[in-house]
Structures are given as C-alpha cells and as structure tokens.
Fold these 4 entries.
Entry 1:
Amino acid sequence: MGNVVVDGWVDRIVISNPGSMLVSVSEFYEGQHSVCRNPLLQKMFVFIGVGEKAGSGADVIVKGWEDQKWAKPVLNEHIEPERVEMVMEMFKGEDVESGFIGKELARSWQGVGKELGVDFQILERIANYCKEPKSLAEIARHLGLSDRYKMKKKYIDPLLGRYLEMTLPETPNSPAQRYVMTGVGRAMV
C-alpha cells in the first residue's frame, strides 16, 4: 500500500496518503465528516487518548491557511497508485503578481520536466496555453496529441496541485472540467 509522505519546500507542504477518499471533497473541506477504515483501531486510539471520533483536521488546516491569506489547500486524488495528496501552498496570490516569488521558488520548466521525467517543452506549451481555463480536449488538440487520457496521465496529472489546478476540483470527471495554471505555474511562464 505505502506510507504517508510529508514533503516540505520553501513555498509549500505536500501530504500524500495511500488509499482513496472515503468522504466527498466538500465534506473533507468542511470537516466533522469521518468514515473510518478501521473502527477497532480508531476506538483503541480514542480509548488511550491519542485519537478522536469526529473528522477534524482538514477544516483546521483550511482555517489556518485562510488566516494567513494563503491559497486554499488543494486536494488531488491519484488512481494508480491510489493516493490522496494535499498541496498546501504558503504564499499569497499578490506575492506572485508583485514578483515576491522569484527565481528561487518559480523553477524553470526544464527543471520540472527533468524532475517529472517528461519533455519540458510540452510542459511550457501547456503552461502558456492554460493561462485561461482549458478542457482536456482543447489541451490535447493544442499539443497535437490524439489520446487525451494518456496526455492527462503523463502531463496533466503530475502538474496538478502545484502548477495546474482544476476549475471544478470537487467533480474531477465533470464534462465541464477545465484546467488553469496556479500562481506558481503563472510565475514560471
């Protein structure tokens, strides 16, 4: 299955957890909704005083980010392998506009491509094209790729959360779904 992974950078924290969501994205952000995978284990932790029954945590994180006027944490669900990832960026939208986030944070697309193992020139083309929200079909057509599902898995999914975001994150498979660059992504264009 895998382990919980917490990665910290200067501008963001990413928490990645094996498995799938057991509540909807909106319920997750609201907090107080919990579906336990292992009720006996949860009961044991509550009994010894190191666990709780109500689903809390996400709402506390979102409130903390709002208090700092940072971007709302983004939740991404990955299918293979099955993982849930929360990306928590630690900068304000105006920081990108003012140039506060500079070269040290906004890395090059060449570096991102190398890190992800994909052609950085395609990433640059996606970034330039997705300054405004675009559908998967529009992006695939722009890149000259015929299989938008393979394109999504290879190029779009690795960018989600950090550089690219969904316009309808609560309904990722909606026919109205569009993709647009995040503040960090726009800073690199």
Note: Residues 96-106 have pLDDT under 50 and may be disordered.
Entry 2:
Amino acid sequence: MRKFWITFWFYFKENFTTKNLIILGVFFIGVIGAAFAFDHFSGRYNDLAIVNTTDAFALHEDVFDDLHGWHVHFVDSEDEARAMLDDGDVDEVFVIEGEDRPAFRMISPSETIAVETELFVNQHLMMQHTENVMVIYELPLEAVAELLTPIESSFESLLDTEDGLAAIVIGAILPWILYMLIMSSGSGIATSVVSEKSTRVMELMMGKVHPTTTMLAKVLSYFGDMVVLTGAIAAGVFVADWLNFIDVGTIISTLAEVISLEIVLLSIVIILLGYFMFIFMYAAMGAIAISIDSLNTMLSPVIIMIMIPVFLPMFVDLGNAVMNVLVYIPFFTPFIIVQRFLRGYSSLLEVGIVTVIMTVSMVLIFLAAVRINKNGVTHTSEKTTFSDLKKLLQK
C-alpha cells in the first residue's frame, strides 16, 4: 500500500504542477464567472404571462416593477396564453381566479415553476385578500392575519411524463460530462505511458513497483487532477453566486425537486465506470504505441467511437430497437442507460445487468492494460498487428 501512495503522489504532483493544468484551472474559473457575468449584464429576461379572469383579484403592471429579470405579458384569455407557451414566447403562465378569495393556476412547459414568481404572485394576492377582508369586516390587520388560510394554487406541466425534466437535464449534461472527462484525461495518460516507455522509465519502475500498482496509481492520479479541475469549475460558479450573478441555492433546490438522490448516485456510478473503462483503454493503447505519432493514429477510431453515443440520441429515439441493443455494449452503455431508465425504456433489472457488464468490462480492460503495459516496454514494432497484440497479452 505504501508503494501505491508514493507512486500516486508522484504522478499526481507531476501532473498538478504542470503549467497546463494550472492554466486550465484558472481558465475554467474565469470562463465560468465571465459566462454568468455576461448573462447577468446582457439584459436577458424570462417571459411571464398573466391572465386575470376576475375583477375581484387581479395583478396589474405596476405590481411587477419589483420582479427583476422577468418580462410580464398581460393576456386576455387562457387559450391565448397557452398558445404563447406552445410557441415559446413565454416561459410560464399564471391564471388568476376567485371571487370571494383568490386562487391561481400555474402552467409551465417543464415540471417546475420558478420559485420567485410563485412566491411573488402568492404574496401580492394575499395582500389584496387581506386588504379586502379588513375593509369588509372592519377588522385589524392582526386579526385578519390569524384568520386567513393560505391561497389555493395548482400546477400544470405541459411536459409529457415520459420525457420528464430529470431525463432532459440528465440527458443534456451526463454524456457531455463523461465525454469531457475522457477527452481531458485519456490522451494525457496515453501520452504519459508512451513517454515513459521511450525514456526507459518503466523498465526502472518495474523492478521496484508492481505493474498493477503503477497502472492503478497513474490512472487515479489523473482522476485526482480531474477532481481538482471540477473544483475549479465549482469555484467559478460560487464566485458568480457571490457576485449575485446567479442564485446557486435556488438552482440546487429546483434540481432537487425533480432529480432524486438515487438518480444522482446512479449517474455518478455510471460516469465513474465509463470513465475508468475508457481511461484503462487509453493506457493500454499508450503501452502498445511506440511514438506519439503512432498513438494519435490509434486514438482516432476511439474518439469516433466515443462521439457516436454522445450524438446518437439526438437523431435516434432512446426506445429504438437499435438503442435496445447498444445499451448492452459497454462502450455505449454509460452514455445512454440513465436517460433510458428515466424515460421508462430500461427497467431497474436492465440497469443492474448493464452495470455488471460495465464493471466486468472495466476490470478486464484494466487487467489487459496492466499486461500490455508490462510487456509493451520491449515492444518496438512500427506497426502493431493482432498477432503482436495477442503476444503482448499472453507474455
């Protein structure tokens, strides 16, 4: 275990102290902060439609002067507001109802409504109701406040339950997160293996540290670097929150309402399995290659193979017969299984089966990478054939 940690820290510090990683970390913090700053100062607004169906309780233009970041449209009928929602002209619709006491209905194209708008509308309707009761019954504010009950409200989502917001959010970000992690680490670890082989460093290490320990320490050190970069991205987000460009708390609470902890944990497990599976493959390719040029030639098909499952769901339905087969292929599984599960195309049993297949594949690729890395030190052939690969695996 001691040799593992020494090797891990050696690779981690070697990667972490490189100028490229430091520059990349600062770049991520700056870009994330600048992106939110641009969004904050660019004057971009969300659009809200208000339908007043009663004269007893109504919201007018002057009420919304304090609601920042929203353009409010006053619409004569609910049908007109729904048409605007379908056309994408507004983001939310509030229908104000009630004669004796106020009520409102919220309509959204997604499964959530902005918390700030709901609270704002609720607050002003309650103020109107309180004033009316005080005037009619000649009661003091304290007495009315104790008697009034919360305003009734309801929510309607125009989003098909099969295409829930959780599936949309996960489908939009999970494949790209995995893709970026693989692209950021893969070529680096493959290049590192090639460099060590060409400088004979691996031959010296083999006498001191077991190849399995070396491979595991190297891969985990690169993963640690990715964690540091993820922290840099998070730092950029919280800097934007500190400068009031965004409200991280509201974003987190909104996502927590539609994405359960179980789905978050499943996504993390799938990302980690997919990440290590591909990274071990990159390491094996680095052991086979004898130069950076030959490595780049070998990596081209792998990059294409990774891009296919990232872009395929944009053109092919996740419930398609092709997807029903591809989900069981380990190199496609991590990019599509969570989306399929959320949209009802994959059962919990199927998720368990493909997770086991991915785990077994990851272990087998790791063992193959260790064997190839050990035997590839003396591999100097300009072109690697299948027979060469077979020999590397069998030595």
Note: The radius of gyration is 28 Å.
Entry 3:
Amino acid sequence: MAKEFLEREKSKVIGKHFMTGKDVVSGIDNPISLGMRFYILENGEVASEFTPDFCHEGHVGMFHGGLISSVLDESMGRAAMSYAEDEKTVHSVVTGELTVRFLEPIMIGEKKLAVGRAISKEGRKTYCESYIIGSDNRVYAKAKGVFFDVGGIDDVEAHKALTGDSNELVSGDPKEL
C-alpha cells in the first residue's frame, strides 16, 4: 500500500488553547496525560506536537489505537473551537460524529504532530478533519468529524481562573508548526 502524505507547510503560531484539567490528551492535572498543548496557526489549523510514552502503549511498542482516536478527536474539537465567530468567548464543543482511519503504526517514543482543521460550519455544527503526521508529513492516522457548539464561557479571565492555565504565548512556545 502506498504511503499517504499531507500537503501542508509549517505555519506561524499566533495563539494557543487552554489546557484542560484531567483529560488524557491535554490534562495538566493528569500524570499520564500526553500533555498536548494546542496552538492556533496563522493558516487556520490547530496543531500540537506529542511523543507517546509506555503508559500509552497498546500492543508492544505501539501507541494505543483508542488514544490515537482521542488525539484526532481533540485536534478536531480544538479546531472547531477556534472556528467560532466570537473570539471573546471560550467555546465548548462536543463530538457528534467521529470516523478514524489508521494508516500506519505509531511507535512509542516517536515524536508526531497532530493537526486539526475546521472545514465548514452550519449553525451549531462544525465539520472538521485531523491528521497525525511525521516530520516528513507522512500520515499515520486521520479522522473526520462533526462537532456541536454547546455554548461557552463569556469571560476568558474566568476560564483562566477555572483551569489555572493561560492562553498567552510565552518564549518557550514554538514559533511555527
């Protein structure tokens, strides 16, 4: 089977999402979280680098498929949140539909990039796609999904207080992804 590659170029980081409390993908209070920090890119994507560890293992040496699905889902959800028209509100979205394709194994210890894209919006629904790619843009897994906007917190400062996190860029953040 031919390898699949994602046509994309690195894009400038222009913002970042809040991390969450306990979730397995980006939970700052979860010791076995992947610790993913999602960045908003100038080209409209959201992206996060990650490296799965042994606590994320499925079959020997391989990243667990359920966690791969979670990374793809989170990437699309973050893209749907960024696609909201009202930038003063931290929007919450939930997954309505998720279709995942596993193309190649992701090995434990291998650094990858998760990329999420919002494609279109119809009312409360946002249609998205996401990819997990290697440094050469080879696609390891991909997904399509539909996300529903369920409202949000109108006060970004209140969200900062709730999560204990900041969405402001700092010197250690990547310049492009």
Note: Strands lie at 13-16, 39-41, 46-50, 90-102, 112-122, 125-133, 139-153.
Entry 4:
Amino acid sequence: MILDMTPILNGSATKIPFRYEYTPGEAIAEDIVFPAPVTVSGEVANMAGYMKLTLSTDFSYDTECARCLAPIHKEMHLTVERDVAGEKTLEEEDNDDYLIFGQDGLDLDEPAEELLFVNIPMRHLCREDCLGLCPGCGKDLNEGPCSCAKKKTDPRLAILGQLLQKDPDTESNDISLTEGGATNGSTEE
C-alpha cells in the first residue's frame, strides 16, 4: 500500500493513520502458510519536521515441527518504529536508517514484509522437548519408543568392536614380545 504523505507535507495534519490487509510473498519462508492476510495498522506522525512511522502487524500462520513434522499454528503481533524522510531531504549517501518516500507516497508493504521476515523463526518446534522421528522406522518418538534396535553400529567401524570383545583363551593383561623376551612390559630377564 502506498500512503499519501500530502496531508503532513502541506501542514493540514500531524498524523496519518492507516489500516489495511497485506498478503505476504513467498520470500518470507517456503514452509509457512498464511491462512488469512496480515493486518497492518499504524500511523505516520509529524513531530516538528521529524516524521516517524509506527507499524503493527497481526497475523497467524501454519507450519510444521522441524523434528516430528506435527502441524503448528502460531499467532503473532509485531510492532516496529522507523524514521521517515522524503527523497529530496536526504543527501545522495546510502541511508538505511530512514524509510524514504517519493512523490507517490510511502510504500508500507516494504517495512511490513521486513518485519515478518526478521521476526518469524526459521525453525519451529511443536514443543521444546520434541523427540522427533526415529531415523530408522519414522515413528513419532513423542508418542512412545519404537521397536528399532537402540544401538546400531556403523558397518565401517564393526571391525573395531571385535577388539573390545574378550577372548576367553587369552588374559587381558598378558602382553608379550617375541623378540627381546620381555613379558608384561618388563625389561628384566
């Protein structure tokens, strides 16, 4: 939405309130679905030549748990304040601290989308202690344990497991050298 800044610029108003619905783009996150448009509201206020935007968003979204894939529904309320300046009032330098408006007015979709993008988490969990899915059988471990073997050995390391097994014919502390005649680490004869 483009907000007409003329009432503040010609002095007929000190505040311009706004309220509209905004449909976020797919750039927010590919695994998030917005069941309804985002409600954007706020105002632009002129305080002795200094303009400030106060923008609030109310929305809900659906996604899934990053560990167990359970559906998640979240509701959020976000607010941001930004300084506003006309494109002719700032010098040519790059100024990210200000929202800049031109002759058409102030684009409110840009700060609304930025607010969503920065504040919606990248990973969602159904609960903090979510156990996730079993990598072997895919069972939801939050519902109980699965029947898979608990300890699986990497087949590449299976030969090392044989070293840990004791052979009943040899003692575990007996070390002997064939040349030199030392037994049990002793150098005496």
Note: Residues 2-119 form one domain.
